[in-house]
Each structure stands twice: as structure tokens, then as C-alpha cells.
Write a structure and sequence with these properties.
It is built from 16 helices and 21 strands. It is an alpha+beta fold. The protein has 2 domains: about 240 residues, Dipeptide-binding Protein, Domain 1 (Dipeptide-binding Protein, domain 1, Alpha-Beta Complex); about 200 residues, Dipeptide-binding Protein, domain 3 (Roll). The strands form 6 sheets. It has a 6-stranded mixed beta sheet with strand order 14-18-13-17-15-16. Helix 9 packs antiparallel against helix 11 and helix 15 runs antiparallel to helix 16. The chain is globular.
Length: about 550
């Protein structure tokens, strides 16, 4: 099972969703659009604080802004909705009888914008190209579990369907994928089908892997499956879309849509000036200092989603092998103060990975309380040298934690741990994580509430987090719970969280409830963490 866990790398589903807070500039103010008979306003502007990175579906990086920017024009097979049920897009049904072979049926009505039907050939073509070695998308590692894919989840550029036993074409509108190991249906839907953005084979059949990797076609596509298509983009700043009038689910009621990349400090001004209409809670981080002002804007409605984004403090166990020292860290940080002082109380404290957003949350697992005197005693028992410097790396793009980190340092110094903060950009921080070159570091990580296990396995296998035999067995036990056994999953996740609380390889500093905002005149748009764009073609402005 350990070998299986090593192979089951996450697609970063929901991977570092809010962790990737890259500084960016805003795009120029757009000229006001003339009203027409469709709606009182025919353009919607969405404010985000993460860069888009790419619009090429084969090069997706699985961050939230990237995922949504792509899916507006190239639909995924499915999408996790706000109610934690899956919304079907290209697929109309996905089933399995043994959790090894998954039968995928494509919506009979699904067509490309040029009228060509979307078929199983398009889906198979997309899988083979996104996994091709020449395209080189490292996020396909999890495809390694399917028969015929290599250990990196990739295929040779010249691979043919008959060489891949894990993929079978049944007919024009159905196919199967077969795994070497059991996969829970929710995991299959979330981590594979949720990130498979189908591209048209009839457009790209003659493209080489290199051409698919480097083409700029996706920044102004002629053929799309989704409700919108990009007409202009500068990925660090904006992407501008126009409606796909032939969208097979219904013509969008709003003709134009912009994703606008801003610094967090610019969101309030953008709302006040009318340059921003909606902020989705995981595509942008609203500074805490601006949240009250935003909540009081008469023309907008603000919402706090349920606790979702976990700010995790990772401990290099090789540097801190004595569990007493790690427990002292856990007991010595005033996490309630962090929530009250830096999140305005909109968050929660837990131990482990599972938040109250998840159906697998254990309400009976009490988080360890702030106990500085007991923490100090533990350090004395461990013989800790209080003069030893601890390098504490944090993300310079996390505006909230940049200040909260100073409180964490003060707490640790109070009990005898000499931590020194060093901020760095997210890419440098993740390099530290991947090479295990850290004492402790903190980063935001958003787990999908319905399916956390591949992300958890990734953290233990790739970031050098301490994984005792008991923890590895607990991770494996979650993967082995049968589909539909909700109580079994809850018990399995609870056991893992309790082990994490006991062994302290990682500390959940707080789980943030992200804020979303929407223009009161924009109907049918709910700024939820999941399912935000699932009905975007129905959005409309009232008079």
C-alpha cells in the first residue's frame, strides 16, 4: 500500500488554492459598455488576486483561478458544486461497480461551438495529450494508477490507443478508464474528471506535442465547449471573454465577462468604483482590514463561506525528532488569538486536516488549548537549547499571515523557541517544501471537503512531513473505505486527525472562512467556494 500511496500523487486538486497568492497588477479600466436589450448591463467583472498562469487546458496547474479561467471556455467532465454534489458538464454519467473500471458517458447534447458533437474521441484525445511526455504537465502524476501510463502518469508522444489498456472506447459517446488500484468514486470525479478540460480533436489532430504546448490558440480560440471564449488576455493582468452564442446548455445572458487580476488592497476600490462586480472567495483574498467596509457597501452583498482554507505550520521532524518539542509548539501558539485578531473571528481551530465544512469532521475531537506554561515545561523535559535559532519560512503573498506570523514568533519565544521569520515568494517557499530544506514553514492549503485524501497523501509523501507507520496505515485505511460508507470515512479521517494531534508533524494554525462579494443587481450568481461558474450562462443584471 505504501507503494500505491507513493504513486497516488495529487493533481493539487484544490492544491494550494489560496496558497498561490502572487502579487499582480490590475488591468486598465474598461470602457463602459452600452446597454442593450439583453440586460441592463452586458458585462461582468470578476476580481481575483491570483494570476491566471495559462489558458491552455493541457497545461493546467489546478489552482482555482487557473481552473476557472480555463473551464469558462473548455468545460471539465464534472465540477464539484456548492452543495458538495457533482455537477455534470461534458459527462452525463460516471459509474463504477468495482472502483477499478469507470464507465463515462458523454452528454448526448454536448457540442462544440462550431456544431461538431463532443465525443469519446475528444475525451480520449485530451487524456492522451495532457499526459504526453512532450506536453510535460507534471500535474498528471496521478494518472500513474491507470494501466498503460508510466510512473509519472505520462504517455509517449506517439502512443496509440491500442497500447493503453487503461482506456477503452465503447462508442461515440462512452468510454472506460481502468485503474490498477481501487479509487473511490468521489476521488475519481474530483481529482481526475474535475481537471479534464476536453479539447476538440478535429482542431488539434495534426498538432505535435510541442505545438500543443506552445500554441497561443487557447488565448483566442475559435472552437470552445463552454459558455464563453477568450478574445484578449494578459495573464498577469486580465482575461476578457465574449459569450458563446451557440452554447449547448443555453446562450449566456451576459455578453461579456472579464477576470481582472488585482492586488488585494485594490479590491475595495474596485468595488466602490464599479470596476468589480463579484469576488469569489477562493479566487481572491480580501484583506481583513477592508472586510468591514466591503460588508457595508450598499450596492453589494458580502458572504462568509464555511471554514475552508487551512493555514498549516509544517515541522521538519528530522530537525525536531522529540515529540515533546513539537507538542510544545502546538501548546505554545495562541490560535484563538490568531482567529479573533486576524480573521475578525471568521474561522475555526482544529487539529489535523478536516474542517467543519467536510461531512467527515469529528465534532468530538477537541483541539489542544493554548497552554504556554505546560509547553515551557515540555521543552525543559526535552532538554531544548533555547538559544538555537529556528528558521520560520512564510509566504510573502499571504497578506493576513504576514502579520499573524509575528504573533506566532512571539508565542514561541515566550516558551523558549527562538523562531526567526523569513518571508519569500510562494514558488521559493514550495521549493523549500519539496526539497525538505526548512525548520518550520507555514502556507495556506485548501482541501476539498468531500475528498481530502490525495492531498493529504501528497503532503506526507512529497513535503517530507513525518509519517509514522501508524499515520501511513491511517492514510491507507481512508483510501480503502468502501464507496458510500460515510460513517466509515468519518471514523477513518478522525483516526488520522487524532494521530496528527498526538504526533504533531503539522499544526493547523487556523482554518479561514473566506469572504465573497456580489453586486446586488447580478442575479443567479452566488460567490461560493465551489460551483461558482456552474450556471454562469444564467447570470443576468437587473435594471
Amino acid at each position: 500500500m505504501k507503494q500505491i500511496l507513493g504513486k497516488m500523487k495529487t493533481l493539487f486538486a484544490s492544491v494550494m488554492v489560496l496558497a498561490l497568492l502572487l502579487a499582480a497588477f490590475s488591468m486598465p479600466v474598461l470602457a463602459a459598455e452600452k446597454e442593450d436589450e439583453k440586460s441592463a448591463k452586458d458585462i461582468v467583472n470578476i476580481g481575483v488576486t491570483n494570476t491566471i498562469n495559462t489558458l491552455n487546458p493541457l497545461l493546467y496547474d489546478a489552482t482555482i483561478v487557473n481552473t476557472h479561467a480555463i473551464s469558462l471556455q473548455f468545460l471539465p467532465m464534472v465540477e464539484l458544486g456548492a452543495d458538495m454534489n457533482f455537477v455534470y458538464h461534458i459527462a452525463s454519467e460516471i459509474t463504477t461497480e468495482d472502483n477499478l473500471t469507470f464507465t463515462i458517458k458523454i452528454d448526448e447534447d454536448a457540442v462544440w461551438s462550431d456544431g461538431t458533437p463532443i465525443t469519446s474521441d475528444d475525451v480520449i484525445f485530451t487524456i492522451m495529450k495532457v499526459a504526453s511526455q512532450g506536453v510535460g504537465n507534471v500535474n498528471v502524476y496521478a494518472y500513474s494508477v491507470f494501466e498503460g501510463f508510466d510512473e509519472g502518469g505520462q504517455l509517449a508522444d506517439d502512443a496509440k490507443l491500442e497500447d493503453i489498456p487503461g482506456i477503452k472506447r465503447l462508442d461515440d459517446k462512452s468510454l472506460t478508464l481502468t485503474s490498477n488500484v481501487p479509487i473511490a468514486l468521489n476521488t475519481f470525479l474530483n481529482n481526475y474528471m474535475g481537471y479534464l478540460f476536453v479539447i476538440p480533436k478535429h482542431v488539434f489532430a495534426d498538432y505535435s506535442a510541442e505545438e500543443l504546448k506552445t500554441t497561443d490558440w487557447f488565448t483566442h480560440p475559435e472552437v470552445v465547449s463552454g459558455p464563453y471564449r477568450v478574445v484578449e488576455a494578459s495573464l498577469d493582468h486580465f482575461a476578457s471573454y465574449v459569450a458563446n452564442e451557440g452554447y449547448w446548455k443555453g446562450e449566456p445572458k451576459i455578453n461579456k465577462l472579464n477576470i481582472r487580476v488585482l492586488q488585494g488592497s485594490g479590491l475595495l476600490a474596485g468595488l466602490q468604483s464599479g470596476e468589480i462586480d463579484v469576488i469569489q472567495p477562493t479566487m481572491a483574498t480580501i484583506p481583513v482590514v477592508d472586510q468591514e467596509a466591503i460588508a457595508n457597501l450598499e450596492a453589494f452583498s458580502a458572504y462568509y463561506d464555511r471554514p475552508l482554507t487551512n493555514n498549516l505550520l509544517f515541522i521538519n521532524v528530522e530537525k525536531f525528532p522529540d515529540v515533546k518539542v513539537r507538542k510544545a509548539m502546538l501548546m505554545g501558539i495562541d490560535r484563538v488569538l490568531l482567529v479573533d485578531g486576524f480573521l475578525n473571528g471568521y474561522g475555526e481551530i482544529t487539529d489535523g486536516f478536516v474542517s467543519s465544512y467536510s461531512p467527515y469532521f469529528d465534532e468530538e475531537l477537541e483541539p489542544v488549548a493554548y497552554q504556554p506554561q505546560e509547553a515551557e515545561e515540555l521543552l525543559k523535559e526535552a532538554g531544548w537549547d533555547s538559544s538555537k535559532e529556528i528558521k520560520f519560512y512564510t509566504n510573502s503573498g499571504d497578506a493576513i499571515f504576514k502579520n499573524a506570523a509575528n504573533v506566532v514568533v512571539q508565542n514561541l519565544k515566550k516558551i523558549g523557541l527562538n523562531a526567526q521569520v523569513q518571508t519569500m515568494d510562494i514558488n521559493s517557499l514550495l521549493e523549500k517544501a519539496n526539497t525538505h530544506d526548512y525548520d518550520i514553514f507555514a502556507v495556506q492549503y485548501t482541501f476539498v471537503p468531500l475528498d481530502l485524501i490525495l492531498d493529504i497523501e501528497f503532503l506526507f509523501s512529497s513535503w517530507g512531513i513525518h509519517a509514522s507507520d501508524e499515520i501511513l496505515e491511517a492514510v491507507a485505511a481512508i483510501m480503502e473505505v468502501e464507496d458510500g460508507d460515510e460513517e466509515g470515512l468519518k471514523e477513518a479521517y478522525s483516526k488520522l486527525d487524532r494521530l496528527v494531534q498526538e504526533e504533531v508533524p503539522v499544526i493547523s494554525l487556523y482554518i479561514q472562512s473566506p469572504m465573497g462579494v456580489v453586486n446586488n443587481k447580478l442575479e443567479h450568481c452566488a460567490p461560493t467556494a465551489y460551483g461558482f461558474f456552474s450556471n454562469v450562462w444564467e447570470w443576468t443584471f437587473t435594471e
